Amino acid sequence: MIETIIRPEIALDDFLPIFVSSAFVLVFGSLYVGVYTAVKVNMLKKWMMVFAYFFWILTCYMLYIMGSLMHVDAFTAKALVVAMVGYLMLPHAVYYMQHRVHEENEHCDV
Amino acid sequence: MANKSVWSDNRFWQRSATWVTGFASVLLIWLTFDTSAQISMGDDADLKNGVTKRVPGPTVINYKITYEMDAKRGHEVPVIGEKEKFFGRDDYSEEEAGALLHLGKLGSQAKNCMDCHTLLGNGAYYAPDLTKSWLDPAWGPEGSMQSMTGKDTKEEAMAEFLQHPSQYPTHARMMPNLGITAAEAKGLVAFLKHMSSIDTNGFPRNFGKIQGAVHGK
Amino acid sequence: MANNHLTSESKQLATWYFTFAAIIFGAQLLFGLVAAIQYVMPAFLFELVDFSIARIIHINALVVWMVFAMFGSVYWLLPDETGIETVGIKIGKLLFWVFAAAIVVVVLVYLLVQVGPADETTIWFITEGREYIEAPRWADFGIVVVALGFVGNLFLTGMKGKQTGIVTVLMADMIAFAGLYLAGMFFTDNISVDQYWWWWVIHLWVEATWEVFVGAIAAYGLITMIGAHRKTVEMWLWIEVSMLFGSGILGLGHHYFWIGTPEYWWEIGALFSALEPLPLVAMFIHVLYDWGKTQGSQDAKGEQLSVINNKPAFTWFVLNAFGNFLGAGIWGFFHTLPQVNLYTHGTQFTSAHGHLAFFGAYATILIGMFYLGVQGSNGIKVMKNTKLSIWATSMITGGVVGMTVALTIAGYVQVLVSRAQMGATWAAYFDGQSGLWFVQAMDWRLIMGVVTFLGFVLLATDLLRTGKSAVHER
What we know:
The complex is a heterotrimer. By secondary structure, chain A is mostly helical. Helix content of chain A is about 75%, strand content about 0%. In chain B, strand 3 (about 120) and strand 4 (about 120-125) form a beta hairpin.
């Protein structure tokens, strides 16, 4: 017997939410790192960092909506989870390094 | 600077960038070899022996082409069926069919088709997509174009339209006269028929399946 | 751009490139307007300058003015970065005239000859008929010669003078940029093979090498305009290069979903193009970070002074960081996954994305470079925004964003009516095109196009006049 794959159609009413949620994935995603950066360079107060993580949560939620409306398969779903965890850690890693660069430079050669 | 860490050393990042770029490029080149083999054009023997090629040989114009749902792949694929007459013949040799396709492909570029239409979905969006235009019901026996052009077959109707497009307005947006000769029109139709036989992974979806749509939804 | 303050010949040559680029930019917008009018009134210039011709000039002028402005930007920054005069500048100047003359001939042939018979002579002398790279074969060879000369100048200068990180990135990037053009210089009967290699040129330009170029220019701008720390900037630049090439090269896969290529490109294209917004976010954050840092240390000194020494250019650079993310990032991401792209491929969605991405990612930063050119050639120490610069910036940006929104709505109608419901036939296409929302969207696109064009007129006036204005500190 042949294995039958039926690729699910995207329902007509789902197109708009897909477009909107995928746009918001990036909007919230950039707000997360944006607020994170602004706090790090003292453009915003320390306690505002809460909002950075809040935006990360919204990013995850938007990606979840998008993924479920598009009927992504199990493997892709797992990959998306890994991607979001990676994204959570990304700015931490970047600013750890930036911090080191500044430490090494601004205290010596300037 | 007592403890200079590797992370804050630009040479480390420069090397990383080089490695990442190199790795991605090598992967792309490797995939290109694989893809090139899969999209190379088939030949007449493949068609006669029923070997499925993603891009069939030019003699595919001797056959009937349909676009059907493939249960295994989950989308529509072009299916090459029995012999079908194309401008009154179904025995074009490999050379004849190849020459027609060559003329048609050159014509598609010389007339800037891609700057109004889309081919395989790429181009401009001012006019309909031509990927599966050969299979379009508008040109079929029940469609309007054959009676409009006064021709009995799809290929003759298409060729007539291409030569005198502004005589057969289908929409306020008309196709301009591009000085297409009879020979060029025949080549272009062969090019379109060949393009419809290319396996495009199910693009476009539901082609010609639904005849009416709800407006403004 | 008169220049009595420029001692470097390389910078003089840069201003030539900028000037010619600005003229071609105007031509791009003009023919864009013709095409936009034809959507609303199809009889406009019918069988005189048809949509196809207007569009060829619209998109070719786009590519050409950007390439000119990019070459100009490199000639502009080379003396600053390397500390020496550009090597082979005489040849560079000669090649400028060759290039400019060739472009004028190509455009006149597009406009006056338009199409040719279906044979090789048309491909060689009139048009190659492949979107974006329609330039006939003779011009291809001319472009290769000019590009080689340019890359030669860059390499010789980089190797002789100080080879900074920015120069190193540009050297590697520009050779790839020039080399990729070769992938678009052949004819084949197999349209799948044709489009496979065609995308090597288009995609690997605009989603890889051009983006890296923007990264390098942004790095240069941050150092020259706000005095950002070179080591930090260059570290960011290398990270951006890794991310851009790491995602962009294989992101090419998102063009291989439906052109006859195997199904494995779905997974590759989806994965890597989903990563493509990341470097754009990084580039945006980079500007924010450096700006915050340098302004922060300035503020710490207790002086309420801006660190920016060229307000209009910096405005365009910030718009670039934002526009790149918005146009290339968001507008690219929401139709890049194959499940959705099956329905959006070849609709006005692509057009919406194209407009905002080319503007946001490239036009903005190159206009910023024009202002750096004006500042340098007039010996201005701190350049301020004039009323005209602010109006020009707002109208161009507002106009492009307006066009993008209109085209997005049009694309949405097309996806629902022509694609999801009716399956992309001839009838489906015209049903979608005559939908009320679609028609109105096209009206708005035209209106916003006019706004953009007026903004351009103001921009050109400002670029010509602001150098003499008294508001700047000299």
